[in-house]
Amino acid sequence: MLKLKHSNFNIECGTDEAGRGCLAGPVTAAAVILKPNFKNELLNDSKQISEKKRDLLRPIIEDEALCFGFAHVFQEDIDKINILNASILAMHKSIEALSKTPEFIIVDGNKFKPFNNIPFETIIKGDGKYLSIAAASVLAKTYRDAYMNKIHEEFPMYNWKQNKGYPTKEHREAIKKYGITKYHRKSFRLLQEQLKLEL
To answer: What is this structure's pTM?
Structure first.
């Protein structure tokens, strides 16, 4: 089982994002503060568990966490401030959405910016080490997937219900055939040959 705490602070929050490598849709982050007695054998990095298990875990996390928050940062902002800054902004917004102020923040990955002078630590592969980051990764992924399923109805030809906006062969083929939508990230390399010039 993953570890419950990283620091000696009582109120420690874990945060993570989903959708960083996508061609369309928002980058979504979640922040979770778990109760001191929280246990869950199933909980792991959201990439390591099936969609079915993530959907099963989401209400358990929401029910049993001390508090949680999530936030989307949409494609227009991603194009303006770049994906790294958008990912950090989404994490900041999700921490802001918490009903309790954390005393310490643990972040999945190696990039973060200070938030309200709260001490923090970045942890590479943290979603496979700490329960709160794993819980945040599950919430970020399930909230983002739900959003992608919703906009799939508007543009079914890209099959976002299946690929969630990631650069699959099918998604790229659909961009080639139909062009891009308002949900696509214009600053991303949407097609392999986008940057080649025919000279």
So the answer is: 0.94
- Axis crossing angle, helix 51-64 with helix 131-152, rounded to the nearest 10: 120
The answer to whether 53 touches 144, Cβ cutoff 8 Å, is: no
CATH number of the domain within which 80 lies: 3.30.420.10
Total of domains in the chain: 1
Q: What is the pLDDT along the chain (199 residues), one digit of tens a residue?
A: 899 999 999 999 999 999 999 999 999 999 999 999 999 999 988 888 999 999 999 999 999 999 999 999 999 999 999 999 999 999 999 999 999 999 999 999 999 999 999 999 999 999 999 999 999 999 999 999 999 999 999 999 999 999 999 999 999 999 999 999 999 999 988 876 654 544 4
Sequence ranges of the binding site: 16-17, 108
The binding site for a divalent metal cation consists of 16-17, 108
Single-letter amino acid code for the residue at 32? V
Is 88 a domain residue? yes
Q: Residue 143 is part of which domain span? A: 12-149
